[in-house]
């Protein structure tokens, strides 16, 4: 297995329970695993997914196991980095079942079908990397925050490359207007400024999201305390980043918790993330409470508190336009998902039942 995993894993002298706890295992996952434990299976967390195989971490260390039994036609239900799985140990380790997820970061599929793509599972904190050395793109930040909120995780914004910023205070204030109520930490992986604050802010399973060139891999190295992720400078010609992280991988943080680095995201389509969109634009909902009509569209109705807020300078037209755009996109994706044949949408649940039956048969054979 990749050395990044083995060098970070808790000591072999650690108890099985403490080793799993360091990876995010808790009482709720333990309860979900009862039947699998009775069948002699072991819990494991997915570190990295390759075609037909996965690198996983167990209470006793890293294992490379076959995962063909968990492959699915729907990418939203395929095994991914961060998943907890049931492992059948032995000369040829095999992943038998996928535990229900406690939230997942899901974006719309690149093929624009109704099927989403899961980027990471069972996430507690999402760090959105925004480069202070690049032109600020408000719409991209709002999309990434919507993904984060919709997963059930807590978003944090890391302003990277502070040492290259011309006016970090102005950018900080502008980003603050896009992310009300969200922690924003200005950092420099070169000077180390802000990294202690960011380390203290993230908890549990942390995922790094952002475009290529935002400094995610450099930030990951800083949080990990050593250079483990490949890094690359942005192109001088156009300032765009180059993909240095080409896969999603889970790494154990030295101070506790785990980190999942992700490849740079070019397309950030929303997959029915209505709740996430609402949280990103929470101030619009606050203003809307004062509208004269409950079904106000915030366009030309009399007594519209949202339009009044725009006129008073409390809310920008761009912010309202961004909210409407993401609302439409989210609703469109949700409608496409609902229109999928019921049989296809139930495939995942049928497969869970098959795995449960197989587990019971395996247990019966041990009697």
UniProtKB/TrEMBL annotation:
InterPro entries linked: G_CP_dom, P-loop_NTPase, Ribosome_biogen_GTPase_RsgA, RsgA_GTPase_dom
EC number: 3.6.1.-
Primary residence: cytoplasm
Subcellular location: Cytoplasm
Keywords: Cytoplasm, GTP-binding, Hydrolase, Metal-binding, Nucleotide-binding, Ribosome biogenesis, RNA-binding, rRNA-binding, Zinc
EC category: hydrolase
Sequence ranges assigned to domain CP-type G in this UniProt record: 113-268
Domain EngC GTPase, residue spans: 121-266
Cofactor entry: Zn(2+)
Domain of life per record: Bacteria
Co-factor remark: Binds 1 zinc ion per subunit.
Positions with biased composition (Basic residues): 351-360
Binding residues annotated for Zn(2+), in chain numbering: 291, 296, 298, 304
GO molecular function: GTP binding; GTPase activity; metal ion binding; rRNA binding
This protein's record includes keyword Mitochondrion: no
UniProt region (Disordered), positions on chain: 337-367
One Gene Ontology CC term in the entry: cytoplasm
Residues the record lists as binding GTP: 160-163, 210-218
GO biological process, one term: ribosomal small subunit biogenesis
Family per similarity comment: Belongs to the TRAFAC class YlqF/YawG GTPase family. RsgA subfamily.
HAMAP family per UniProt: GTPase_RsgA
NCBIfam families listed in its UniProt record: ribosome small subunit-dependent GTPase A (TIGR00157)
Function: One of several proteins that assist in the late maturation steps of the functional core of the 30S ribosomal subunit. Helps release RbfA from mature subunits. May play a role in the assembly of ribosomal proteins into the subunit. Circularly permuted GTPase that catalyzes slow GTP hydrolysis, GTPase activity is stimulated by the 30S ribosomal subunit.
Subunit and interaction comment: Monomer. Associates with 30S ribosomal subunit, binds 16S rRNA.
Full protein name: Small ribosomal subunit biogenesis GTPase RsgA
Organism for this UniProt entry: Streptomyces spectabilis
